[in-house]
Design a protein that fits this description.
- The chain is an all-alpha fold.
- It has one domain.
- 63% of the residues lie in helices and 1% in strands.
- It is built from 14 helices and 2 strands; from the N terminus they run H-H-H-H-E-H-H-H-H-H-H-H-H-H-H-E.
- The chain has a two-stranded antiparallel ribbon with strand order 1-2.
- The radius of gyration is 21 Å and the shape is globular.
- The structure holds zinc ion (2 copies).
- The site of one zinc ion has 7 residues, from helix 4 and helix 6.
- One zinc ion (ZN) binds next to helix 13.
């Protein structure tokens, strides 16, 4: 008998290696969110319907958690494009945590590495590995241990901020309160049915959309669009992506001027994150980085 025929295509050693690099808990949670958002949410809507209050809560939480990521995680903590009082930092850390995109410590260190190593194997969401990899698949891949140590340097500055460390240590509790919040609001209005209804729309469906809006920056904004500020890397400007990402679509400008609190530098660019930061300046609650 030819022994080679009975050999498994993937050896046990290789299987073990693959198992080590797939982050199964994240894969399961994201698959669950995706399935409920695509099948459960519309089905519930057809059978029972959603109330106006559910929709208002959905829009409000989309805005709050989306800006938590774009203004907080991205422009404040990753790029330090402005400074603000500690309590304002805490608001952004909680709002960003509610988007379930990992703790600021992890998210921002990945993002700092993305800017430092754009389009290389060291870029966590390297767009040259294809649309789906840069969009979402990279999240399900664990960093191999030797690389993990080398990548600690991207966390050094972040670790010095006690509020970022507090959020990192309480990340799970923050995510759970973010999911419980719409349920409680709905429950107070209409009992269990109201709780489930608000949880599905303003909890799970909102989570799914905010996650994908962030993912679009890493995938679409590194593949399609204009490069008015240079083609040294794959970053591209995409005004229509800005419409759902609070102004983050002007990604070619951003890669060339990462310390600018604006992503859309022109007055007519749709960049609500820039408007919020500018409003903080006017209120004396923020200062442009020097
Ligand atoms: Zn980028
Ligand atoms: Zn950035």
């Amino acid at each position: 008998m030819d022994q080679t025929i009975s050999q498994p295509i993937v050896s046990d050693a290789e299987k073990k290696k693959i198992n080590q690099i797939v982050d199964y808990p994240t894969l399961i949670v994201f698959s669950l969110v995706c399935t409920v958002a695509i099948i459960g949410v519309p089905l519930f809507g057809v059978v029972y319907g959603y109330t106006t209050a559910d929709w208002i809560l959905f829009v409000a939480l989309y805005i709050v958690t989306g800006l938590g990521i774009t203004v907080g995680y991205h422009r404040l903590f990753s790029h330090r494009s402005f400074t603000c009082p500690n309590w304002v930092e805490m608001v952004f850390l909680i709002a960003g945590g509610w988007a379930m995109e990992n703790s600021a410590l992890k998210w921002c260190s990945d993002h700092i590495r993305h800017h430092a190593k754009t389009d290389t194997d060291e870029d966590p969401y390297n767009a040259k590995r294809g649309f789906w990899y840069s969009h979402v698949l990279w999240i399900f891949r664990k960093d191999p241990a030797p690389n993990l140590q080398a990548r600690e340097k991207y966390k050094t500055a972040l670790r010095k901020n006690p509020r970022i460390m507090w959020q990192h240590n309480h990340y799970l509790a923050i995510v759970l309160t973010g999911l419980a919040f719409p349920f409680v609001i709905g429950f107070l209005q209409r009992g269990w049915m109201g709780g489930v209804s608000a949880f599905l729309l303003a909890g799970v469906f909102r989570l799914f959309l905010v996650l994908n809006s962030t993912f679009f920056i890493n995938s679409i904004c590194h593949m399609w669009g204009d490069q008015p500020y240079g083609d040294a890397n794959t970053s591209r400007d995409n005004w229509w992506i800005s419409l759902i990402t609070f102004g983050e679509g002007y990604h070619n400008y951003h890669h060339n001027f990462p310390r600018d609190y604006r992503n859309g530098p022109k007055w007519y660019n749709f960049d609500p994150s820039k408007w919020l930061i500018f409003s903080l300046f006017l209120l004396g609650l923020g200062k442009k980085a020097s």
